[in-house]
Amino acid sequence: MAGNADVRRTVMFPSFLFVTLLVALSNAPVGDAIWLNLPSTGTKCVSEEIQNNVVVLADYVVVPEDHGHIPAISVKVTSPYGNNLHHMENVTHGQFAFTTQEAGNYLACFWSESHTQGGGEASVNIDWKTGIAAKDWESVARKEKIEGVELELRKLEGAVEAIHENLLYLKSREAEMRTVSETTNGRVAWFSMMSLGICIAVSGLQVWYLKRFFQKKKLI
Amino acid sequence: MKRWGKMWALMGLLLLNWVSNVSSLSVTVNDVECVYEYVLFEGDTVSGNFVVVDHDIFWSSDHPGIDFTVTSPGGNTVHNLKGTSGDKFEFKAPQSGMYKFCFHNPYSTPETVSFYIHVGHIPTENNLAKDEHLDPINVKIAELREALETVTAEQKYLKARDARHRHTNESTRKRVIGYTVGEYIVLALVSALQVLYIRSLFSKSVAYNRV
User: Fold this and answer.
1) pTM over the 0.90 mark
2) Which of A96, A134, A176, B119 can bridge A86 by disulfide, Cβ–Cβ 3.0-4.6 Å?
3) How far apart are CA A159 and CA B141, in angstroms?
4) Class (C level, CATH) for A31-134
């Protein structure tokens, strides 16, 4: 998580109180994720359509209920071709990371394992990051020895590059769709003409056949 | 003292890293699906969009739509959209806490909704302690980041809409081929049936009584 990565750098500063405050705040289960309510039976799935060669980083934590008991959940993450990327049973937290090998719909399914509580809903905090949001800025800062404003500007530069890539991707998708539309357009014209042609041919055949039939029956 | 000032400025910078950001996820809405997001500071701008994808509409030309409601931690409805198949939203959070984003599907067919929620924070004087001063560069960087985030959000919206358009196009392509070939077969069958029927009208067993 972006918050965690930058908080670890605060140990350089002399103010221990604020270091602990920031560390405490960063470890609190709030900040940059979505929460889902898992019903006691049934699966809840989230999916995303991701391109090829994109880094995916996700964290999930089960929020403890009011009386301190932490319900257990099971997770299963599948690729668009059905490969199992991450499968854990009866856990309260975990994380998974992978680089996409194929473009398509990636599915992460959660279901509740605590059947003893009966009717209680488990809340899962999912922090799902793809692409530029999953980049480890802490290691970049360490490697290139940059910090502060320069690091922030570097992050903004990364965001702009991601925007540019997305734009190119949208452009290529639009081009593909335009091809499909134009083929369909051509096909509609051809098939309608063929339909008219078949109609005429079939009625011609009918008339010829009936004429031959009546001539054979000596009616005409 | 200058060193302390720099430290506070850097801490302010670190604090503003807590901007919430998720990728555009999709959920299947059977009846009601709720997603929760935590807003850290009061006055943060919560923005996002959602698009209903993957619904094969048969006759009608427009999607019937789903309802979208945002509830604040105090229980008030902050934002409400009815019967829409995709829209953008933006509001200023009246209080910090857990916000509930609910999708309600009034029809029996399950829908897949692709959504994106972003909580943006720009540091102001209220967020810092009394003896700190706000470094204008931090504010400018935060504003730049928020501007870039709006572009990213637009792109995610466009991507989701493009996915839905692609579904429609694929469906049209399949319909064109399927229905035309079916039409030809039915036409040929009907005319063959016609011929057979006329033949049967002239058959010997019936002919002497009729024609």
Assistant:
1) no
2) A96
3) 13
4) mainly beta
